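Review form for a predicted model. The reviewer records the input and the model, then writes brief findings.
Reviewer: anonymous (R2)
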Amino acid sequence: MEKKKIIVGATGASGLPLLIECLKFIRKEEGFSSVLLMTRGAELTLQHETKMKASDVAELADETFEIDEIGAGPASGSYLTAGMLIVPCSMKTLAGIHGGYADNLLLRAADVMLKEKRTLVLAVRESPLSPIHLRNMHELSLLPTVHIVPPMMVFYNQPKTIEEMVQQAAARLLAPFGLMAKAYHPWQGL
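Model under review:
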């Protein structure tokens, strides 16, 4: 059985522990594989938020490409994937996707998702949100394959640790791909 590839992009916004958790979840699922694209900003933020190096994160992925490899597989619609997750997704990257400004492999891969009508999940990170951020998110959310999923804390599952909160948020980001990580606790109602 061929594995479903998920392109996982990371930008310089805060939230790199979510990237790490998403890659771990994908690695555990036998029907999925990951393709990692990290911006230079993501590599810098990683140093501030974790004790990991970019090379450590790359080891969690099944395949990696450098951000300036604009002609690599993910730049083409013939590179078959289940879609793309950008976690975290900076407002700069969101604006680039919204404007079709594909000046690196991550933005070009996102552009491919839009033109090929594949799933694109954006874990947007900023607070507070400006009218421009909201406009970009709103307009992209009108496309049926785009999911705007800000990583939100939830409390209905009564998390005991920050790690459990990170796992819940990461698992929620993967749900649009049909990957239901064991750590995901969807709302069950009252």
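Findings: Residues 1 and 165 are 33 Å apart (CA to CA).
Further findings: The domain at 4-177 is CATH 3.40.50.1950 (Rossmann fold).
Recommendation: see findings above.
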